[in-house]
Design goal:
Length: 276
């Protein structure tokens, strides 16, 4: 291990890369040495390292807090805990998708949170790939538009969750789910209000459900050009509602949802004007 004096022979740019960007372990005495260095850049680097250390500490405590429900179950000898969540309840088009994931015990992934709080799509995709690589097992289930219209969106969401749990390669001992109760669940379960922000397992499931559904809508955007599903993912944004009224409903639109019903009814009434 080189001494602090030897480390200080490196450029400030190299030190920043190592101890801020790459977050390498900071040798004892380095921060004090940089803080007492007359160079403004060295003092700024000392502040950056301290700030990153505080951020890491806060993130560590946040991630620890997200394991509170899992720790209670682990203390009871329950190890295979599946988190379950869904995505796509509100959109006017496309399926509702659910995910189930069993994480390794005491799993922590920096930045993992409720998917709705992670606005950067690339960041969500990176987290999803990490979760898939690290998970004991994971699965996704979906309910199609026809099922949504036949069952209603709430029951269709539960059906997607049920399918996600049934698709797990390893049967869970317990299920944590975001504010729901999954029908015909093969093991005990607990619904947690705002669970995607409070449970690591549910948060991981929310990321997988969100990224899976987004990928489906991007593919549907290629199939149905002009509807811009890749940008609004079928949610009832002003843009989507405008395009829906201009172009009409597609087979992937949820006919049980009011804005789609209104467009279909308008089309029917307009056709009557030209009959006879």
């Amino acid at each position: 291990m080189p001494s602090v004096d030897q480390i200080l022979n490196a450029s400030l740019q190299d030190l920043k890369k190592r101890f801020v960007d790459q977050e390498q372990s900071v040798p004892r005495g380095l921060i004090n040495a940089l803080a007492s260095d007359p160079r403004q850049g060295a003092q700024h680097l000392a502040s950056s390292i301290l700030r990153r250390r505080r951020e890491n500490l806060r993130e560590g405590w946040r991630l620890r807090g997200m394991l509170r429900f899992e720790r209670v179950l682990w203390s009871q000898g329950i190890n295979r805990i599946a988190g379950v969540d869904e995505a796509g309840m509100a959109p006017l088009a496309g399926p509702v998708v659910a995910a189930a994931v069993i994480l390794p015990r005491d799993y922590r992934l920096r930045g993992l949170n409720d998917s709705k709080k992670i606005l950067d799509a690339d960041r969500r995709s990176w987290l999803a790939e990490q979760i898939k690589r690290d998970a004991v097992c994971w699965s996704v289930g979906r309910s199609e538009v026809e099922e949504i219209d036949r069952l209603n969106i709430y029951r269709a969401g539960l059906l997607a969750m049920q399918r996600a749990v049934e698709g797990l390669a390893v049967e869970p001992d317990y299920v944590l789910v975001d504010a729901r109760r999954i029908p015909r669940c093969p093991c005990p379960q607990h619904g947690i209000i705002r669970g995607d922000a409070l449970s690591m397992s549910i948060a991981a499931a929310s990321i997988l459900a969100k990224t899976t559904r987004d990928a489906i809508m991007i593919e549907l955007d290629r199939l149905y050009q002009g509807y811009r599903f890749a940008s609004h993912k079928g949610y009832p944004t002003p843009e989507h509602c405008r395009i829906l009224k201009e172009r009409g409903a597609l087979p992937i639109h949820r006919r049980s949802f009011a804005p789609v019903r209104e467009v279909l009814d308008l089309g029917l009434r307009q056709r009557h004007l030209f009959e006879g």
